[in-house]
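Appendix B. One record, verbatim.
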Amino acid sequence: MKKEYDFSKAKKNPYIHDLKKQITIRLDVDTIDYFKQLSKDNEIPYQTLINFYLRDCAKKHKKFHTEWTP
């Protein structure tokens, strides 16, 4: 390992727009369990899976609809 590094010719990270922002979100336990099980079946982390679902909703501009039935 060098004692000093020369960063004068360094380039800005081209993937900076792909970075994620950490947030806190409250989810029902059964919702988390659902995504955890689904993530095991697909062998990907459950937080990544939740992000895929939310990204898909945002990309398709899905609207939230509720229908209350007695």
